[in-house]
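Data availability (excerpt). The following record was deposited with the supplementary files.
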Amino acid sequence: MADTTVNDIIALCKRRGFIFTGSEIYGGLPGAYDYGPYGVELMRNIRNAWWNAMIYSRDDIEGLDAAVITNRLMWKYSGHEANFSDPLVECKKCKARMRQDKMRDPTKCDNCGSTDLTEPRAYQLMMGLSIGAVAGGEINAYLRPETATTTYINFKNVLDAKPHKLPFGIAQIGKAFRNEISPRGFVFRMREFEQAEMQYFVDPAEDEKYFEMWKFERLAWWVNVLGIPAEKLRFMPHEKLAHYAKAACDIEYEFPDGFDEVEGIHNRQDFDLGSHTKSQNEFDLHAKVLDNKDSVIKLAYSDPQAGKSFIPYVIETAMGVNRAMFAVMLNAYTVEDLGDGKTRTVLKLKPWLSPVKAAVIPLARNIPELQEQASNIENALRKLAIGRIEMENSGNIGKSYRRHDEIGTPVCITVDHQTLEDGTVTLRYRDTMEQERVPVDQVPELVRKIVMVA
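Predicted structure:
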């Protein structure tokens, strides 16, 4: 069959309720999308899989959920206010605006081909806010452009509330906002998106060890938990390091138009805690930071054995949840040839990621006994608290199977006339289309085993 395209996923997302265009009835808004009934479930399952790997499977990482609206000073000292910008070029002929670093030819307008372009200028990516009754319109706060900085400023709060020895981490999942010049690639680059980031604080003498450790920890998660084949992923070291970085690389996924970033792993040295700490001159900072006279807290770690305080280095893992969902759907989307000119579309998701964990399908809508038995099975499955369970009551078994193939439901349970005779139902498996009869009382445990996280 033909290779999967972005348009295949866009069509599936709209048709089956994964992702809709934001503000669609008013013409939409570039870079904004709404997540439908199955999209919210898939996103939630990816978040839960990440949270399980970072928090529940370890004892050295704590969770955080920081505010989205943030003090302007945070972004002044992080360097975002002065440096977080893209080079913007405007075509004098058609007035189109473009990111110079993303243009097909930096000397020609992507829209009309004119060479009459303005000089590039910095375009601020942060979304400024004017909050409070006396703000007067000036920017005095920002919607955060990332979750990481809101983690750094809570370093001491978390450490005081839940003491740890180094190394330890702080993880959070949440919304971030960027005033992108040209949102693109469906949900790949948006103005409102979700990040899953973990900041791992380490002794400066051990930074390289933990940088390498987290590279391979994260790659293994993409393969084993999200189900992405290893050959469709690669490490891509940064050719040019940011001013704060000692080392950095991306995990890239092979999208239809080539490899692109889905997660970054960075050795940020002591830049972040050093930028926001009080009394910077008391610490031997390696990174170059702005002189901070506004911070009221020392963001340092006290080593009781060595009898000293120092600023830890940070190893960061940063994943775009929307991009992860996009990559997962692209990888899972399959069109199979059934012969005689027939095909089926199936989303071969890992069962623990599937928006619907199981569908119960009574063979007929007009037979009360079948409806009652199906309802009993549905209720038994819901008591497992494993995720969404659906009753599929269309009365057309073939169409029901096809719909659940498309949304990725791993197993369908068909209740038929034989169920009333011998207390068995048909389990039909998504990936193989194989079917087997099992006793009704075995269904909950069989479904639970199918959708358990690896």
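Summary of structural features: Residues 96 and 412 are 51 Å apart (CA to CA).
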